[in-house]
Design brief:
heterodimer, A: mainly alpha, 2 helices, B: mainly alpha, two-stranded antiparallel ribbon, 23 helices
């Protein structure tokens, strides 16, 4: 399976899940986003992008050091 | 007859310690762990082992539904861990792991605070030996830091218990505490939170666990933090601050995992993240949330052990543990890949695996309690978990560009242990009732396999998968280390220790100088005692300041013999006269 066909399969399953969500929607308690079709799909994508970009930005600015940095002067 | 499962482990550890052959030791410890598991399953609710010690009732073995479920998972993982470690030769590690598991069981079955505290500290000390057993310089240094943090945590707990005792509440039954008891509540909570590795007091875990041996980390990942979760469930259910601490921890662990290049540290950050789910569940305090926290602890022990064992197998056969050094090793390890994915799907909450049936309980409880921000934070942490364990780790370890590392022989027992753990993960995912029937708050009114839950999980996985494809390049490992909160205290503590040792060095130097001076003054008189007489103005005949001839002033030996004999005769005469 090539990366392109894998991506197609993933998109197809995602679309099917949204369709099923609309089809099986039920009334219940909870915030509005629980009743928004495809919310978790979008949350997964956006959450992943935000997590990676924010972590990389903060990490490269403040947190990451070269592996050769030793612990001299620290316990 | 009721036998404490922990005492069985201590007994087998003592027997194994006397055995020379490592393979025989391993088998004895495995038999001990299986016996302990059987004993644990056979326990019935109530207090079985107790005695009175200086007016204090010590309950060594108190069994209730909560301790039963934690006892079951701890003994089960001990069995799996010993199967995984059947091939190891280190006597110290083998014995320390058995005692460590015994300490964790001691906490779980402790009926009173004193038993809990003693078992707690015993667990900390034996886990330290497990860390040191890897015999690497990094493990030694990390072990000392681990020791320092756990001494601090233990001190918080100890002072809290003293305050609790002096407040009149006593150190009897380990049970629910309320904030109105004052500082004791917060001190005990802090002590437990340090062991639960809740940020910002979590760095000991990501620092020390990855430095343990491949086999040692399986036990470490399962016992210490889950023991702390157990105590939180028993003592602090519904403490609101835990909701926020837990939800933050869940995201924090996922955040740091993005930056990690070391596969074991990456998994360690996911321990922090997953424990965050449990802690949040404890803070919510509803029946569903507390059952969810227990169920998630149970599931977590299994799937996290499976992940650590799978990556431990990679480290065992390649000797590498960094993403930048690995890649393409999966071609020669197809079974390990399959088993790894069972753990990855489970931790990610994919339907049909045990993580799904437990994690969804906590998230649903947050929704029911209208805790929407924590709910979103926990969902974001789930995204991070899917990203790292289902996508980043397997891709860059097993499938990525071949970095030329060739794998060696993998002991069969390691595969057997992983298979047992994987079977448990799938079985509980397919039959949630098997776990739900053990949960402490019955009946469990929760069904994980609803269309909402299943579709939500599937969509999260797909959305994260698309995100991974988009940011694929950014996620590859970089040869860096990541600073964490321990940097805030490591340098100051080093400076304090350095200053203190410098001060002590100064005192030692001064004492040495004084000692040398005294020696220089006294030594001539020891060599020539007549100098002392000369000081008072008396100089015996033949006195020479520079030279002292001891034979010249010594009594002849015959004179000494004469006086000793005379004294003895006098003594005998005196005794004879006194007797008549």
């Amino acid at each position: 399976m090539t990366p392109r066909s894998s991506l197609k399969t993933v998109v197809l399953v995602g679309a099917l899940s949204v369709f099923l969500e609309v089809l099986l929607r039920h009334e219940g308690h909870g915030p509005w986003w629980h009743f928004l079709p495809g919310f978790d799909l979008a949350f997964g994508l956006i959450g992943c992008v935000v997590l990676v970009l924010v972590a990389k930005a903060i990490g490269q600015t403040w947190l990451q050091r070269s592996e050769t940095d030793n612990d001299q002067g620290a316990m | 007859m009721t036998i404490h499962p922990a005492l069985l482990l201590v007994f087998t550890a003592a027997v194994a310690a006397t055995i020379r052959r490592s393979s025989v030791r391993s088998v004895i410890l495995l038999v001990g762990a299986v016996t302990s598991l059987v004993s644990c399953v056979g326990l019935t609710p109530g207090v079985a082992l107790s005695f009175v010690f200086t007016e204090h009732r010590v309950d060594l073995l108190r069994v209730d539904p909560l301790s039963q479920v934690f006892g079951l998972i701890f003994t089960l993982i001990t069995v799996i861990g010993f199967v995984y470690a059947l091939h190891i030769r280190s006597r110290g590690e083998q014995i320390a792991t058995a005692l460590y598991a015994a300490g964790a069981l001691g906490v779980v079955y402790a009926g009173d605070w004193i038993t809990l505290f003693v078992s707690w500290e015993f667990m900390s000390m034996t886990s330290l030996i497990v860390i040191w057993s890897s015999e690497r310089a990094r493990a030694r240094a990390a072990g000392f830091r681990y020791l320092l943090v756990h001494i601090t945590g233990g001190s918080f707990l100890f002072v809290g218990l003293m305050l609790l005792s002096s407040s009149g509440a006593g150190l009897g039954t380990v049970g629910l505490l309320e904030p109105d008891i004052g500082p004791a509540f917060w001190l005990i909570l802090t002590g437990i939170c340090i062991n639960a590795a809740i940020p910002p007091v979590h760095a000991w875990l990501t620092d020390a666990y990855p430095e343990a041996s491949v086999t040692g980390m399986v036990f470490l990942s399962a016992l210490t933090t889950k023991t702390a979760v157990y105590v939180l469930i028993r003592v602090f259910p519904g403490t609101e601050v835990l909701v926020w601490l837990g939800a933050t921890a869940a995201v924090y662990g996922a955040f740091y995992a993005v930056l990690e290049n070391d596969i074991r540290r990456l998994l360690a950050y996911h321990i922090v993240s997953q424990v965050g789910f449990m802690v949040a569940g404890v803070g919510m305090g509803s029946a569903l949330a507390l059952n969810g926290a227990v169920a998630h602890a149970f599931s977590h022990v299994l799937y996290k052990a499976l992940l650590i064992m799978s990556l431990g197998a990679v480290i065992q056969v390649t000797g590498k543990r960094k993403l930048t050094e690995l890649g393409g090793v999966g071609r020669s390890m197809p079974i390990v890949i399959g088993l790894f994915f069972v753990g990855a799907f489970a931790i990610s909450g994919v339907p049909l695996f045990n993580g799904f049936i437990s994690k969804s309980m906590i998230v649903t409880a947050a929704t029911e309690l209208k805790l929407f921000t924590p709910e979103l934070l926990l969902t974001l942490a789930s995204v991070g978990t899917i990203l790292h364990t289902c996508l980043k780790l397997p891709y860059f370890t097993f499938f990525g560009p071949d970095c030329g590392v060739r794998s060696g022989h993998l002991p069969r027992n390691m595969l057997v242990a992983m298979t047992i753990a994987a079977t448990c993960c799938i079985a509980l995912g397919l039959q949630p009732e098997w776990l739900y029937n053990w949960l402490p708050l019955q009946p469990v009114m929760y069904s994980p396999y609803t269309s909402d839950h299943v579709l939500s999980s599937v969509q999260l996985v797909i959305g994260t998968g698309v995100g991974f494809c988009l940011l694929f390049v950014k996620l590859s490992g970089t040869p860096t280390i990541t600073l964490d909160t321990d940097q805030l205290w490591r340098r100051p503590v080093w400076l304090v220790v350095n200053r203190l040792t410098r001060g002590l060095d100064l005192v030692r130097g001064s004492a040495q100088a004084v000692g040398l001076r005294i020696r220089k003054t006294v030594l001539p008189y020891a060599g020539n005692p007549l100098l002392l007489l000369a000081l008072s103005g008396f100089t015996p005949t033949g006195f020479d300041r520079e030279r002292y001839d001891a034979d010249r002033y010594r009594f002849p030996i015959a004179v000494t013999v004469f006086w000793v004999t005379a004294a003895l005769v006098a003594l005998i005469l005196f005794a004879w006269i006194a007797a008549n």
